[in-house]
What does this fold into?
Amino acid sequence: MVENNNSKKVRRILIIALPFILSTLLINGCRTTSDSAPALDHPLAFSMGAILNGMNLGNALEAPSPGDWGVTIKPEYFETIHEAGFNSVRIPVRFSAHAGQAPPYIIDPKFFSMVDDVVKQGLEGDLTVILDFHHYDEIMVDPAGQRERFKAIWKQLAEHYQDSPPALYFELLNEPNQRLDAETWNTLVKDTIKLVRTSNPRRKILVGGINFNSIESFAELRLPSDKNLIVTFHFYKPFEFTHQGAEWIAGSANWIGTTWNGTPEEKKAINDQLDLAATWSAKNGVPLIMGEFGSIVSANEDSRQRWTKFVARETERRNIGWIYWEFCSEFRVYDCQLNAWDAKLINALFEK
Ligand code: BGC
It folds into this structure.
């Protein structure tokens, strides 16, 4: 991946604030879970269908320009992914870097057609395709200034894909953070879903909570009454293990060598988090998906396998689908140069 780009720099700066974010999260998590306001105005009104076992095609279309981060999505990847046992792919796309800065915020047709090809290849490959609006950095710092643009981009996407098969899902926004606080985000979610629904009355839409799609943020998420919403969360705990040495996380070099041994304490920490998620889901009648989970390629191999297998099985046990982060970059399970899977890691994803 090319390291020299603005987004990763911004991300690095953001991460300096991580201890603050984490402590806010902890405090908020404790406060709001006991604060039992219902998040929805409809009870148990969903059916999830088959559990998704998916792959994130990361570091491709969400780079500032496609290819900047060393991954280009090739048509044959979809067959490779399908044959390995996955039934879905998530496509992170930085639409904000390819849309006008002034109304009507037109998405660049050349880029749009590149996204189209990828979506089409995924659907033709018999995969559920989650089209995810990723790395909209500007909206995290200026939600008021970007909300109309965000909605205008979604209007174009929704109208463009309205006749696509139901296997195409939309994901409103990856990892809301910073100034996208709960109240601002809840309002934006409500308005954007309303707008998408005018052209796509029943398409599945994924929505996550604030603070980088944390589980704790569910407590503050307020969703409109809609049977076709799926709530997504990202899971990278323990962060010191999954992100050891990640060049975009300040201080992570100190974590190099952290292992995950599957001790009762380590397992309990993960199970407690997943229980929190599953309890919220049952109470509010909304299905869940773990839209990202994974560990960095430089972490200890055995630990990666143990952690991956444990997290995947424990989510499935709670009827939660998962999407591995990611295909062939820093958290990879596939080598795009050698065109080969990491046999042990992929086995860990699926072995019961
Ligand atoms: C980000 C990636 C990052 C990954 C793990 C994703 O949501 O978009 O840049 O590598 O999380 O931190």
Observations:
- The mean pLDDT is 89.
- DSSP finds twelve helices and ten strands in the chain.
